[in-house]
Amino acid sequence: xxxxxxxxxxxxxxxxxxxxxPEVAGLSCLVNLPGEVLEYIxxxxxxxxxxxxxxxxxxxxxxxxxxxxxxxxxEQFRVRxxxxxxxxxxxxYVNWLEEYKVRQKAGLEARKIVASFSKRFFSEHVPCNGFSxxxxxxxxxxxFEDELVCILNMEGRxxxxxxxxxxxxxxxxxxxxxxxxxxxxxxxPDDYESYLEGAVYIDQYCNPLSDISLKDIQAQIDSIVELVxxxxxxxxxxxxxxxxxxxxxxxxxxxxxxxQVLDAMNYVLYDQLKFKGNRMDYYNxxxxxxxxxxxxxxxxxxxxxxxxxxxxxxxxxxxxxxxxPSHFLLRWCQGAEGEGIxxxxxxxxxxxxxxxxxxxxxxxxxxxxxxxxxxxxxWPEKVLDILQHIQTLDPGQHGAVGYLVxxxxxxxxxxxxxxxxxxxxxxxxxxRDVCYSIGLIMKHxxxxxNCVIYGWDPTCMMGHEWIRNMNVHSLxxxxxxxxxxxxxxxxxxxxxxxENLEYNVEPQEISHPDVGRYFSEFxxxxxxxxxxxxxxxxxxxxFVYETVQNIYSAKKENIDE
Length: 561
Known about the structure:
This protein is 53% helix and 9% strand. The chain is an alpha+beta fold. The chain starts with a helix and ends with a helix.
């Protein structure tokens, strides 16, 4: 009977949703059903919020069932935004209709702001004050973040520019929260030391879209501590560390007992769990993030030392970090705590200067010096000189060098006087030698990498030092030929000579973080520039269509034959 009643009522609901004045017989049939059945129908998932609004206006019975804090509007909210339900407690009173309205409004505001970013910040990376509109938004920040996540999860290859700026904004919002937590952490008294907590904040800051928490990471470390205690019990069943409770910070003073803990730790970490240093890919960022170190059981001195120090302190062994040039070490205090650590950047700069005075061609030290100057925002011209020297010594460092070169040049440009947008027309006589257009997928003849063009110059616009270091004069056409700004599949940005590029006969998407900054869509054969890039190259799109027709259509015809 109940099933028959539901089926019968389900036929009536659509009519109620569409008709302004439903027939009396149909309405009477619906409202006479048991309340549980009516609620089941209204929560079935096929009705929209607008439908529920119309249904609730038909009579008192349905209006009471669709009350703002009831199950019907809760289900509407859950179906529309399921990821937000974790923020609500089952015991809390919630006006779901009001929450629905506020979330809907936040979504519209989020999309409006995302749409404005490309026009406002195309010529430079979004400055910190560029997010002031977001900071002044009304309503819960989690609603705004949820809409940004919805934009990022849009299917297909379209809306690339929206996704690019949505990701930028989402990074900013979450990183601001993490920075506030980190500032509070740094203001703790000196005797409050939790290197793990600081490392987790850095991990969260660098991976704001990942689900990383101190609680989860501490739980994983606690499981390692349990394994160490099990091994320690076999060495000394009466060891005082075995009696420690979670969260205790007691220290063991006897050297022999400390040694037993370290022996057990070494066995568990390196023999049983196979933790190791990443010698083959030392500079991979995954080696630094604690959640990745625990998953991959692979790290570098600083991350492995932090893990080791955390476990040792939980078991009562005092270790101290030592910031040694080129490496990060631990010191076994063997009783008393050592002296504090000098956090001065000046000491690091002086140490690097001293090392480089003795070993001027040490690529890794040069790269560290360039990164230090870059992040401190000092002497950008010196950074470029160091990077050019690194590229000459070791061309294999092109990834790290390319990233720093790009952002250092942008830093220099921002310091110059602001000029108008430069428009480049293919029809201009001085551009007659330019063969390729923005948005085309290319392949480098010499190095074989795939890339997409996002800018071009009629001749090489780099300085004499760059031209000499990159050996441009050895090319048949030298620097007197068009050069192209390209986004490369490995994440780098390069400046390539025209004679070194060719069409990629099998075009594919370029996995580069800045693709959305310049392009709105990938069609399968080429990228379509967004409005800001098209302003700078207004005639290129016509050439792109012509090229795609000639290259890829001809290829398809050959395959069909």
